[in-house]
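Technical note accompanying the year-one report. For the benefit of new consortium partners, we illustrate the data format agreed upon in the data management plan: each record pairs a sequence with a structure-token string. No post-processing was applied to the example shown here.
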Amino acid sequence: MVRNPERRAALVDAGVEVLAREGARGLTFRAVDAEAGVPVGTASNYFSSRDDLLRQIDIRLHERLAPDPVVLAELMKAPKDRALVTAFMHDLMARAQADRTGYLALMEMRLEATRRPELRASFTKTVRADLEYAMDFHRDAGLPGGDETVTVLYLAMLGLLLEHLTLPGVLEGVLPGVSVPDGLVERIVATIVPESDARSGADAGSGSGSVSGQR
């Protein structure tokens, strides 16, 4: 059977919508067909199993949530300092807000991975590769801080994304005078990332980095 690549892509995006709205338990071929507006049985002709669909959603989310190369290139014209790291984090937050559905689907993928060993193995590999790419990218760029800084920044931003996209009221007014999320982004970077790359202590041996490539 000849399959239409455009229809396949539309089905995967429909799967993202269903996953974000209904959770993994609601991700059925019938639900994907309904979301995509295609005849019942269409998704089952394009994906061999639910696990296959989840793998394709993982790949699609990687594409949807990745930094825009044009934006990245423009940002890289700036001095390689803490202000640039802050700009990267604002871009990350802007992408999350622009594609909230994609980020919610990504969070659902994390939850589903806790229940499915095969998915956990492949998803862990994907997310770890994203983090290591970001470390390598910013090490080469010479941004301040080392891999330890990058890891803590990654964890802090992941927490901010989780709260802001799911329970935003938790953070409103928690720090008087600090806006949500932009003010918190700036506080996170200012707290974690050094002003300049002193290359001292434990960070110095790890290389520099940030999480501009994080999804």
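Partners are asked to follow this layout when depositing records. The radius of gyration is 19 Å.
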